Amino acid sequence: MPRYNRFLELQQKALVSLTVLANVYGKSACDGISFIDSFLLKVCHPERISSHTVFKG
Fold it and tell me: Domain residue spans in the chain?
């Protein structure tokens, strides 16, 4: 199980970084929508984009 042990090690390191990041952003005033990171996320095949209704009113 060396991969699981490595996962636990990296998880602890990431948790420290994310905690610091959350504290820094949590203390600042929010003036609207805030993003820490954004990237292209493919949600459905292009042929079915018109039927994708998650964000439709």
Answer: 2-51
